[in-house]
Task: structure prediction
Amino acid sequence: MSPEQSIILFVRFPERGMVKTRLAEDIGEESAWILYKYFVLDLLETVSRGNRVLKICYSPPEAGEGMKDWLGSGYSYMPQHGRDLGEKMRTAMEEVFGQGCPETILIGSDIPDLPHALIESAYAFTRHDAVIGPSYDGGYYLIGFRKETFLPEIFEGIDWGTEKVFGKTMEIFTDSKYNVHILPLWQDVDRLADLRALYQRNINSPFAGSRTIAYLSRTLDLIR
Result:
C-alpha cells in the first residue's frame, strides 16, 4: 500500500427523493433514501482501510457543506463537475492526477458490499495500463489508471446508464491497445432484484453485520 495511491468515491448528497430513484419505485422513497445513506457509510468503512488517499467526489457541486455535516470534516472532498457522468469522472481523475497522485481508482456508491480484497486487487498497475470492474447490468463499478496511462477518451461517446457501457469502454481500450486488468463481475444495486441479491449473498458473509444488511433484516417486507 502507498499513500501515493488514491481512491475517488463518487457520492450523491442524500437529498430525499433524489437518490436511488429507480429503487424508490420498488420500495418507496423513504426506504431508498435510508438505504442509500447506509450504502455510503458501509462502503466508506471499506475504502478507508489502508493508507491510500481517499477523495469523496460529491454532487451536486453546491452540497459541500451538507456533505461535511453528514460525513464529517475528516475526509477530503471535491465537487463533481461535468455535463454527464463521463465528463464528471474524467475531470475528477484529471484533478487527482494534477495533484501529483500517480495511481487512482474511481468507484461508485451503489456497491455497498464491495470486498476490500477486490479493491486491493485493483491496484495491479505494475502489470497493466488500466483496471475496470464490470457490473452485471452492463456497466462498470470501478475504473482506474496510472497517471502516465490515463486515457480521457474512455469517458467519451458512451451511452451512460445503458447495458452497452462496459462493452463500448472495452472497445476503446482495445482500439488504444491497452493492457487492461478486468476485475470479477459485481452487482450494483439499482432495482429490487439487485437488493434481494445483495441480501441473499450476504446473509452469512462478513458484510452481514453492516448497516445495510441490518436494515434489510429489520424490514424484510421490502425484499419479499
